[in-house]
Write a structure and sequence with these properties.
single chain; alpha/beta; Rossmann fold; 7-stranded parallel β-sheet; two-stranded parallel ribbon; 9 strands; 35% helix; binds 1,4-dihydronicotinamide adenine dinucleotide; binds D-galactaro-1,5-lactone
């Protein structure tokens, strides 16, 4: 079993590498940045927008975990080239190589302009908060096309905030712990069909449904609440009227990037 992980040098990739290691499994780590491979790992330095390089990177691959690209807002042309076209190049290379399972890193920012409700449902209609969010909507759409047209099993993860620990008050609701991220990835790699699931832990203050995640076998075990006393002591109680808490995408819903598009 060989898994190609794009964006492996990034924050999520680095947290996942030790957690996805298994006897008999090879992780092929692909990034623009050089990565030092450990036991059971291979490294490929490549650009996800390069069709030839991606075709080569798919050799002998059973499943793809596509994390690579811009992980925050950027000018439109960059988002178009790397996040949107890059996802097309990855999916096309996977299809040509006969890869069966693909997991795509989407984001809560695909739906960021939705007001926060008691619990946002699965498959919430797109309402992106940035060009970055648009690229995640497009990623979900491309995944859907490659499932319906070519029969690929595709799971899109609308990740909340995946870091070693919650960094602010909003993340008490949106945190995806590294261990839960690995659990969700394992469930997604095994799932058939096409799914869009929230990438979030079992947070006491959670905003999003865990139903579809559980339907594909994800059982979250962590809760950001253990960090609440320290964060609240430092930052005060969450203000439900603030943008951070009133809109799903939080501060990404603020003013657009000041760039010449
Ligand atoms: P990151 O920014 O730490 O890592 C992204 C990696 O992609 C970097 O190592 C970068 O070198 C690589 N990359 C960028 N352009 C590339 C290209 N053209 N070819 C090959 N590699 C390229 O991001 P992070 O936090 O690890 O996120 C991983 C994925 O998960 C991203 O797609 C992000 O949008 C998504 N996500 C992450 C969340 C989080 O809380 N960390 C939340 C929601 C979504
Ligand atoms: C994301 O999509 C970003 O990649 C990440 O850096 C966080 O800001 C996260 O969303 C979030 O909403 O906390």
């Amino acid at each position: 079993m060989r898994i190609l992980m794009t964006g492996a040098a990034g924050g999520v990739g680095t947290l996942l590498r030790p957690r996805l290691a298994r006897e008999g499994r090879v992780l092929r780590l692909l990034d623009l940045a050089a990565v030092e491979p450990g036991d059971g790992e291979e490294a490929v330095t490549a650009d996800v927008t390069d069709p030839e390089a991606m075709a080569g990177a798919m050799d002998g691959v059973d499943a793809v975990l596509h994390l690579g690209g811009y992980s925050v807002e950027h000018p439109w042309q960059d988002i178009l080239d790397v996040n949107i076209n890059g996802t097309y190049v990855v999916l096309e290379a996977a299809r040509k190589a006969g890869v069966r399972h693909v997991v795509l890193a989407s984001s809560n920012h695909a739906v960021g302009f939705h007001p926060r409700e008691a619990e946002a449902p699965d498959y919430l209609f797109p309402r992106p908060d940035t060009f970055y969010g648009v690229s995640k909507v497009t990623k979900e759409a491309l995944g859907s096309l490659y499932h319906d047209r070519y029969g690929m099993a595709v799971t899109c993860l609308r990740i909340g905030s995946c870091f070693a620990r919650p960094r602010d008050l909003r993340m008490l609701s949106t945190w995806l712990s590294p261990d839960d991220c690995a659990r969700l990835t394992e469930a997604s790699l095994a799932a058939d069909g096409y799914h869009v699931v929230w990438g979030v832990s079992a947070n006491t203050r959670g905003w999003w449904s865990l139903e579809e995640g559980r339907a594909i076998g994800y059982e979250p075990k962590d809760d950001a609440e253990v960090y609440a006393p320290d964060l609240i002591a430092e930052l005060g109680e969450p203000d439900p009227e603030s943008m951070e808490h009133a809109l799903l995408g939080g501060r990404f819903c603020g003013p657009a990037l000041d760039v010449d598009n």
